[in-house]
Specification:
The complex is a heterodimer of chains A (792) and B (548).
Chain A lengths: L6 H48 L8 E11 L2 E9 L1 H24 L6 H20 L3 H19 L6 H32 L4 H6 L6 H18 L8 H6 L4 H11 L1 H9 L1 H6 L2 H22 L5 H21 L3 H28 L17 H14 L6 H15 L5 H27 L10 H63 L7 H59 L25 H7 L8 H16 L13 H10 L10 H26 L12 H4 L4 H33 L11 H4 L2 H26 L2
Chain B lengths: L1 E4 L12 E4 L4 H23 L7 H25 L4 E3 L4 E3 L1 H28 L5 H18 L3 H20 L5 H32 L4 H10 L6 H22 L8 H8 L2 H26 L4 H21 L7 H21 L9 H30 L14 H4 L1 H15 L5 H15 L3 H26 L42 H19 L5 H14 L1
Helix pairs in contact in B: 1-2, 1-4, 2-3, 3-4, 3-10, 3-13, 3-18, 3-19, 4-5, 4-10, 5-6, 5-10, 6-8, 6-9, 7-10, 9-12, 10-12, 10-13, 11-12, 11-17, 12-13, 12-16, 12-17, 13-15, 13-16, 13-18, 13-19, 15-17, 15-18, 16-17, 16-18
Classes of the chains: A mainly alpha (792), B mainly alpha (548).
Chain lengths: 792, 548
């Protein structure tokens, strides 16, 4: 069976080829099943090979199978071959195993996606590349797989290319990984020049021929490569983005498989690590420990269900780095395997939740899903117990081993590493408990109005009173205008009265001056009568106008009162709306409902539509993998139980791959027990604290979920700031240097490259002449060199 | 005068009045002759029979000529059977190296002819002269690649170059095109002059212009009768020859013409410039430096290392500052030149375990690069649209939506150029870096890796741009008289009266697509099975090693 090991990568590769050719014709779900079968066949082969290996003795379990000569160029010959040993087969087992489950789950998850078959093309290629990476018998093949998974990851992240955010996340992954690849390439060539070979067989058995210095350089370079691929400080930035990408499936494929390749590489090269100086291993351990702590602090404040898991993955990878750095290769692989199980479980569980809640990813909108999605909830809780380090679930055993090795490490600050690891374990238990409570416990907040909806309702309610206010104000202003008009009228009428009185006085005097019977006397008397009448009439008008003014004044007073009342009401309503509970930015009111109160009738359509939706359990293709993974996550600790030597299955099994480089743990049984109890106690405290805060409301979560944590310590912003600022200026500077200084020296003419297309400027002789002069200067330099050779 | 030949190929001496013509093995020369005579036949036939001038015929004729030339390589390969055959009195060496390079040049002609057909139809040009010039240029390149005689190298170089100067100018409506040709010509003439002067100096020092003679002069007399005088002449001559080649292959600092000429010349012509012309240049350079001046490797190797290093840095970093895709690819070709120079410098030292590694690296790179670059410029030919002017990064925005197949092919080709695994580019770069490391030029190898990383960002920019939807942010700046407002999705029907309107939809002619698909296919095939060329590559590289 072992001779058929080449089938392991061949199956997914064949699936890939098949899907490229016929994928579209197969459509949904045919393409998915083809891919799943290819992956399952690969898993079956791996199991068979594994069974063969188990039956063999120590050294025999390390074998190289050369398939064909791949690159032959003189002394530089690279074979396409497979290295079948316990390490590669262990990796292959969980990659194909978990990979098959992911394929199966994707058939359900990708249902209805127009790019259904394309997605499975990437998935199969990804699995094939990953298998090439771990099974290849030389660094070149590993690098091929390394780049292959990178490319697939890029495709999967950018799966919906049209989305600018995904495209830029993909770009980030690509560029960050290229930095790591640089380390890989240089390290490969350093090994080639030192040992004359890049086959693992040669490197591993002849590592002692390397000088300490060379080994150290190689280790640091490979560490750079691994930090890129396994998302360690400072190159981790791409992973959270990658996982926030379009599907939890792509997130998972990263979490369970690809990101472990860096740790795999360092484990594979353990004899080289053993040759390197102690500080380089210490560097690996500390980078891992700090990454673990750093990412865990960020995970505490995330509200996106997938982001928590993404940062958690970065954090757990930090543990693996820590383990490798302190020489704990077995714990590294042990935790890698258990992590693959429980993290896959958690990711698929979160996918199921998102699926069931109609693409809701915000945990503030979840809660109480325990009864609505029982299978998902139950399996997720097992995953939580595993990652939180609760015995006897798998995560406890593997994490405890790593902490033990850290405690035991000499010369690189082992106790410090252990302390950082312990704090991280506490944070892990805390944020995972928080996640479980927010998602599955407490009140179902899915139907609650969202902050945006309440805002909309509030503005609806306030708007109503405001409209009223506007009407009243307008009425009052009309009344005021009427009053003013009346007042003017009174003044005008009064003027008329005084005019009439003047006329009356004149008339009275005229009447008095004339005698009765005199000529015109009658006329004067008549004039006098008229004047009297006019006075009376105008006086009456004044009274009338004064009455009207008084009436208007009353109306104005009334309306003013009304305006004041409405104003008061407006401020009341505004206050009331302001007081209406909104879901907080961090998670507070877990127990109390976010009640819209009097605003209910103002809530927008989206709210009412949601009331008709039903969070539901996912279909069987999705829950079946959950159950399988839950069982594995629960019992995988049995792979390497610490109690007696006989129970160290994984350690015995991996022995041929480790060349005796595994660190020896000197701690006594008593110390081990104490360390274990401390870890359990710390985890328990964190879990209880999280229950207190998030379920019982004993403390304000805002005190814990700081802004700086939610924003990931602003690292992304800083990088972006650098690339947008100084980094960009560097490139612009280079370009400017070329344009201005280089061309300037050459031609004495500063010119802009971008206007080169303008023919008028181009045909100026100075232009070509400047190029010619450049060639001339270059020629002089070349000749100067050759002539200089004469005098050596 | 009586001319006489002997069957043995020996030149009979001592018979005054008789000039002996060397024996010529015509079969060995067949691939070259097919190419050269094909060009002559095409121009003659189309002049005499006007109907043949119609657009399809010259293209089909050129494709067949290239195929026939390549087909003749098979009997030639059988005839040489691993050893070298010298032809024409030792002026040409027909060995594995020549055959391989000839094959690459023929491939380039084959692929470019199909592009040219699509281009000429779209731009409304006819006439066979484009094809004739390309065939002649290719013939010159073949001569250069096989030459054992500096005079013949020069001849080949000039035949190669002059035809390309004219090709660069042939888009009559674009002043850019003429400007490019003008620059190319002036600077090319300058470098040719330097090259020729170098030959003269070398002749003065060694009394020979044949590579064997030059090597022999040093071998016969390691110390030299008058070492200072002889060496100084040789070295200055060598310096000038290196400069001549460095210009042709656009190595920094002799690269300044490249971005301008690439930007201005008709795109299919650029495809040929970047592939056939460069391949011939590198082949000639390898011949002259390795075979003729192998003994002087300590003198020229540092210079080649510096040229390669500068090409890496300038080619990759300055490419990032460009927004015109043609200019980007111009800098990218400078970057590729760095890789080929890195292979070139790794050859001749006796200390090296294997010269085969470097030779194979160079030849593999030449092939992989030729195919990729023709394909890439092929896509650009189509995207450029009528007027050959839509080459800004914005013009590629959303290409995947409108022309998914074209965008997919472009992505494959660009990933190939970036050296991503599963493409030929990966192995090409890998082999070169391995050879560089083995030659002990660690700094150069480091720069090569750095350049590979930086350049990857450049290609990625184009790919991302293609796969983003949305309209171009800025309309194409109207900078010259063939100004085109570049509203990609806008009024699709181009105004037939206005031939310089680059506004039409992207048309995908069958022949051009076939050429691009072949290029992408070969890129992936060589990426999956790099051993496919195994024996041929080994023998071709061994030919050089044996001749050292």
């Amino acid at each position: 069976m072992i001779d058929l090991a080449w089938l392991i990568p061949a199956f997914p590769l064949a699936g890939f080829a098949l899907l490229v050719l016929f994928g579209r014709r197969l459509g949904e779900p045919g393409a998915g099943w083809v891919a799943t079968v290819a992956s399952a066949a690969s898993f079956a082969t791996t199991v068979a090979v594994f069974a063969d290996l188990v039956g063999m003795e120590g050294e025999e379990r390390f074998r190289v199978q050369t398939l064909f000569t791949w690159i032959a160029a003189g002394s530089f010959e690279v074979d396409a071959g497979l290295l079948i040993d316990p390490l590669s087969i262990t990796m292959a087992l969980f990659i194909t195993g978990v990979g098959t489950l992911i394929h199966l789950y994707s058939i359900g998850y990708m249902h209805g996606d127009p790019k259904f078959s394309k997605f499975f093309i990437y998935l199969n290629l990804f699995v094939a590349s990953m298998l090439l990476l771990i099974l290849g018998d030389n660094l070149a093949l590993t690098f091929l797989g390394w780049e292959g998974v990178g490319a697939c990851s890029y495709f999967l992240i950018s799966f919906w290319f049209s989305d600018e955010a995904n495209a830029s996340a993909g770009k980030k992954a690509f560029v960050t990984n290229r930095i790591g690849d640089f380390g890989f390439m240089v390290a490969t060539f350093v090994l080639f020049t030192s040992l004359g070979s890049i086959n693992y067989d040669d490197i591993l058995t002849r590592a002692d021929e390397l000088s300490t210095q060379t080994a150290t350089i190689v280790v640091v370079l490979f560490m750079l490569a691994a930090a890129g691929k396994s998302a360690q400080l400072p190159l981790y930035v791409w992973l959270p983005d990658a996982m926030a990408g379009p599907t939890p499936v792509s997130a998972l494929i990263h979490a369970a498989t690809m990101v472990t390749s860096g740790v795999f590489l360092l484990t594979r090269l353990n004899p080289v690590l053993a040759e390197a100086e102690l500080w380089s291993r210490g560097l690996i351990a500390w980078i891992g420990a700090l990454t673990a702590l750093f990412a865990a602090t960020i995970a505490v404040a995330q509200t996106d269900i997938k982001k928590v898991l993404a940062y958690s993955t970065v954090s757990q990878l930090g543990y693996l780095f820590l383990a490798v750095g302190v020489g704990g290769f077995v714990p590294a692989i042990f935790h890698m395997v258990t992590h693959a199980f429980f993290k896959a479980l958690l990711f698929l569980g979160s996918g199921s939740v998102i699926h069931g809640l109609h693409d809701e990813q915000d945990m503030r909108r979840m809660g109480g899903l325990r009864s609505l999605m029982p299978v998902t909830a139950f399996t997720f809780i097992i995953g939580w117990l595993a990652i939180a380090g609760v015995p006897p679930f798998s995560g406890f055993w593997s994490k405890d081993e790593i902490l033990l090795f850290a405690w035991n490490a000499d010369g690189i600050g082992g106790k410090g590493l252990w302390a950082v690891g312990l704090v991280t374990a506490m944070l892990t238990a805390f944020y995972m408990t928080r996640q479980v409570i927010l998602t599955f416990f407490g009140r179902t907040r899915f139907f609650d109005p969202t902050a945006a909806e309440i805002d909309a309702a509030a503005s609806g309610r306030v708007g109503e009173v405001e409209a009223e206010m506007l009407a009243v104000t307008e009425a009052r202003m009309a009344a005021v205008a009427a009053l003013e008009k009346a007042a003017t009228d009174v003044v005008k009428r009064s003027d008329a009265v005084s005019k009439a009185k003047t006329v009356l006085v004149e008339a009275t005097a005229a009447v008095g001056a004339s005698t009765d019977g005199a000529e015109g006397h009658d006329k004067l008397v008549k004039a006098f009568d008229r004047a009297v009448k006019a006075v009376n009439k105008s006086e009456a008008a004044v009274v009338k106008a004064e009455n009207a003014a008084a009436a208007a004044e009353v109306e104005v007073d009334q309306l003013t009162a009304q305006v004041t009342a409405t104003e008061a009401r407006l401020s009341d309503v505004t206050d009331e709306v302001g007081r209406a509970p909104r879901p907080a930015a961090h998670v507070t009111a877990v127990t109390e409902a976010t009640d819209a109160g009097p605003l209910v009738e103002y809530l927008p359509e989206s709210y009412h539509r949601r009331q008709d939706q039903h969070p539901h359990e996912s279909p069987a293709t999705m829950t079946l993998p959950l159950v399988v993974l839950a069982v594995l996550a629960a019992v995988a600790g049995g792979l390497n139980l610490p109690f007696t030597k006989d129970l160290h299955f994984l350690e015995h099994w991996l022995e041929p791959s480790l060349f005796g480089n595994e660190a020896k743990v000197a701690a006594t049984a008593g110390t081990k027990w104490i360390l274990g109890v401390v870890a359990v106690a710390v985890g328990a405290v964190a879990i209880v604290a999280a229950f207190g805060v998030y379920l019982r409301g004993r403390a304000d979560p805002a005190q814990i979920e700081r802004r700086v944590l939610a924003d990931g310590w602003y690292v992304d912003e800083s990088y972006a700031g650098f690339m947008g600022g100084p980094g960009r200026r560097l490139f612009e500077g280079l370009s400017w240097f070329d344009r201005t200084i280089v061309d300037g020296i050459v031609g004495g003419v500063a010119r802009s490259v971008t206007v080169a297309g303008q023919s008028l400027r181009v045909l100026q002789p100075g232009f070509v002449r400047s190029y010619a002069l450049g060639i001339g200067l270059g020629s002089v330099l070349v000749m100067a060199w050759f002539v200089g050779r004469l005098f050596q | 005068m009586v001319l006489a030949t002997t069957d043995s190929g020996d030149v009979v001496v001592g018979q005054p009045g008789l000039v002996e013509l060397p024996h010529i093995d015509w079969v060995l020369l067949a691939p070259f002759l097919v190419m050269a005579l094909g060009g002559i036949l095409l121009i003659t036939a189309t002049s005499v029979v006007p109907i043949l001038r119609s657009r399809g015929f010259p293209a089909a004729f050129t494709v067949l000529t290239a195929a026939l030339s390549a087909a003749f390589l098979v009997p030639v390969w059988d005839r040489i059977d691993g050893g070298a055959q010298s032809v024409a009195g030792g002026a040409l060496a027909i060995d594995g190296f020549s055959v391989f390079v000839w094959g690459v040049i023929a491939t380039s002609v084959f692929l470019v002819a199909a592009l040219l057909d699509a281009y000429l139809r779209r731009e409304g040009f006819d006439g066979p002269e484009w094809y004739v010039l390309m065939l002649m240029s290719a013939a010159g390149g073949m001569l250069l690649a096989a030459s054992q005689e500096l005079i013949l190298s020069f001849l080949g170089l000039e035949i190669l170059s002059i035809a390309v100067y004219v090709l660069a100018a042939l888009h009559l409506r674009r002043s850019d095109s003429q400007e490019a040709a003008f620059k190319y010509f002036i600077l090319g003439a300058l470098s040719s002059a330097l090259f020729l002067y170098g030959i003269a100096l070398v002749y003065g020092a060694t009394g020979s212009t044949s590579l064997a003679g030059i090597a022999g002069a040093r071998a016969d007399n390691p110390a030299g009768l008058n070492p200072l005088e002889n060496s100084s002449l040789v070295l200055v001559g060598l310096a000038l020859i290196v400069i001549g080649f460095a210009f042709k292959v656009s190595a920094v600092p002799f690269h300044m013409w490249t971005p301008d000429v690439y930007e201005g010349s008709p795109t299919p012509v650029v495809a040929f410039m970047a592939s056939g012309v460069k391949v011939a240049g590198f082949a000639g350079m390898a011949r002259v430096l390795w075979q003729g001046f192998g003994f002087y490797w300590e003198d020229w190797r540092p210079i080649v290392i510096v040229l390669a290093g500068l090409s890496f840095v300038v080619g990759s970093f300055l490419a990032l500052a460009q927004t015109n895709v043609k200019r980007m690819l111009a800098f990218s070709s400078i970057n590729h030149a760095g890789f080929m120079l890195a292979a070139l410098q790794a050859i001749p030292s006796d200390e090296f375990v294997s010269t085969a590694l470097a030779g194979q690296a160079l030849l593999f790179y030449l092939l992989a690069y030729t195919v990729m670059v023709v394909g890439t410029f092929g896509v650009m030919t189509l995207v450029g649209r009528r007027g050959d002017d839509a080459h800004s990064l914005d013009d590629y925005r959303g290409l995947a939506k409108r022309r998914p197949v074209l965008a997919g092919l472009m992505a494959v080709l660009l990933f190939g150029q970036a050296g991503i695994p599963f493409t030929s580019g990966f192995f090409a770069k890998f082999r070169v870096i391995a050879a560089t490391v083995e030659s002990g030029a660690y700094v150069l190898a480091g720069l090569a890796m750095l350049a590979a990383v930086v350049a990857a960002v450049l290609y990625l920019r184009i790919v991302v741009s293609m796969y983003l939807t949305g309209e171009p942010v800025v309309a194409h700046a109207a900078t010259d008289e063939v100004a085109v407002d570049d509203d990609v999705t806008g009024h699709g029907e181009s105004d037939a009266a206005n031939l310089d309107d680059g506004d039409g939809p992207i048309v995908l002619p069958k022949a051009a697509m076939a050429s691009i698909i072949i290029a992408a296919f070969v890129t992936v095939l060589l990426g999956l099975l790099p051993g496919l060329l195994g024996g041929v590559l080994t023998e071709a590289a061994d030919a050089l090693a044996a001749l050292k």
